[in-house]
Amino acid sequence: QEDRVATVSLMSSMADSVKGRAVVGQVLEGREPELFFLVFKSLIIFKGGRSTAYKNSILQKSNRTEQYQKDGAALFRVQGLRPDCIQAIQVHLAASSLNSSHCYILQDGASFFTWLGSLSSPSDHVLLDRMMDKLCPLKQSLLVREGSEPDRFWTTLGGRSEYSKEKCVKGWPTDPHLYTCTFQQCVCNNVIYFSFQ
């Protein structure tokens, strides 16, 4: 709730700074349209949050690995549409987060592993290389193919465990696409917000 209030406040101030009527869209995590990622080009999403509720939930779980720390351990799934539109999304630091259809970057302090799933494509490998250059351009990573992981790789992930080894079809919504829009008027300076469902 705290994050939502802060978001609405920020959107309102941004809309006020634009001449004319601003249009603001809500995009739900995991259901982002292709255009959303094209706006950002290369996007790195770190786990973590600044809200009090998020920090309290981390303290209750006693799991500090959920928030990104520069010199800590982190696992990123790399995905994208093409080399100029890539995302690295931090996922839970566990072997169960791996998927044979994807490529990953595993950070262990100052060391990096790039993991190629056995079902990933050559274009996925290109995206992985490009993202590694953006995430840490001066670091050399150790290339690891699925099935030939060193012990340190598994130790960083907290040990071996089962993960998805089935082919995952990667697709993006294609045009034409029908959206349902819900319009609501905010009490903040008569700015109209809409959300895709």
Automatic annotation (TrEMBL):
Alphabetized InterPro entries for the sequence: ADF-H/Gelsolin-like_dom_sf, Gelsolin-like_dom, Villin/Gelsolin
UniProt KW Nucleus keyword: no
Keyword Hydrolase carried by entry: no
SMART domains assigned: GEL
GO molecular function: actin filament binding
Keywords: Repeat
Coiled-coil intervals: none
Residues in Gelsolin-like domain copies: 89-124
Protein name: Gelsolin-like domain-containing protein
Organism from which the protein derives: Aegilops tauschii subsp. strangulata (Goatgrass)
